[in-house]
Amino acid sequence: MEIKELFNIFGLKTDRKEKIKKFRIDSRKIQRGDFFVPVKGSKTDGHLFIQDALRRGASGFFSQKKYEHPSVIHVKSTIEALIKVGKYKRKKLSVCIGITGTSGKTTTKELLNFVLSDFFNTYSTEGNLNNEIGHPLTLANITEDAEVGIFELGAGKIGDIRYLASISNPEIRVLTSVGHGHTEKFGSFENVIKGKGEIFEGGEVGILPVNLKKYYGIHKKITFGFSEEADIKISDTKITETGTSGIITVKGKNYPVNVPVYNLSVLYNLGAVFGVLDYLGINPEKVVDRLKEFSLPEGRGKIIKHKNLTIVDDTYNANPLSVENAVRTVSQLKGKKIIVLGDMLELGKFSEKLHRETGKLIANSDIDIAIFYGKYMRYAYEETKKFKESYYYENKEKIADFLLSQREKITVLIKGSRGMKMEDIVHIVVGD
């Protein structure tokens, strides 16, 4: 986008034709040619850093305050201005895909971006920029050649998904899962179901787990899951030495798939992906072989080999649904297995109950050793220690020391909520 085009959006004139490289809200990340969007937050006001952004080479900036500068665009709200740009850029896409869910959003987004990039110029959410600021920022930075956009929509309360979907207006709307995530903010599990379902208030098609269709009245839908009634059926899932394998059945035809990731739910996420492929009329045979080359970003199930340890770095986040999947995944691995878990946050009044349920799940699993960290994981430890070799630590260095003291070949899965920063353990172990 040229500066001139941006000025035109706001009814302004300029002769400047230089390209805007990227819209940014953090002045510290400004590079020459970027456009600065100062945001007023609870802790600071981005307007205080306009001069810093200009020194770093910003080509222009929005401002809610009077500012004498040839590169300024005065607006009532910098966020609303960003949304306006995002909506303008989104209209240039041929197809927009919106994804929400308690867990699996990022993996599904990454899978879709990976397979669809063979057929289209794709653009997707960077990192976890999926909230009321991150989503319009993502849209504003849609690349000029993009044909298909793949976006995560995050939610912490009722109304969030409706609001975000109203900005990007996706034609294809995907719900990956519903579980006890952000229950504290939503108020109840029923509200989680309701809030996530806001994704289906519009669009051309809804793609969702077959067991959730009873909650939502969707005119055009594609379901996925393990039952026979699913449009996209998943079966024979198992963990192998090379990753996760299974069979996905579409319109009566079986497609054996293998993904180089230790994560049983990746097949569930693929069910959603195959639903999108089906709607777009893409033959699944064209993507099956490509899946063998797929890899996840750091913290999302990435496999790290270090001496005698095979570390599954799943540290980015955790909720009861994703932890249950992690336990089932590790249980299927051969050899000695250790799981390291940090607290699952934002569960409110359900915290003790759900952590105890996690402990009981581990107690009945094929995991050899369980290690717990955090005040809520003490409840899980209490349920596990009677039946399984278990340890509770208040210090991440001691957890790392324990793992490094092991001499035989071991697979270690490390997971916890974002606020627990369980990646610290990975970094200590591998010496980053």
Automatic annotation (TrEMBL):
Subcellular location: Cytoplasm
Superkingdom of the source species: Bacteria
Pathway of action: Cell wall biogenesis; peptidoglycan biosynthesis
Binding site for ATP: G101, T102, S103, G104, K105, T106, T107
Entry annotated with the keyword Cell cycle: yes
InterPro entries: Mur-like_cat_sf (IPR036565), Mur_ligase_C (IPR004101), Mur_ligase_C_dom_sf (IPR036615), Mur_ligase_cen (IPR013221), Mur_ligase_N (IPR000713), MurCDEF_CellWall_CoF430Synth (IPR051046), MurE/MurF_N (IPR035911), UDP-N-AcMur_synth (IPR005863)
EC number: 6.3.2.10
Cellular component, GO, one term: cytoplasm
Summary of the function given for this chain in its UniProt record: Involved in cell wall formation. Catalyzes the final step in the synthesis of UDP-N-acetylmuramoyl-pentapeptide, the precursor of murein.
HAMAP family the record matches: MurF
Full protein name: UDP-N-acetylmuramoyl-tripeptide--D-alanyl-D-alanine ligase
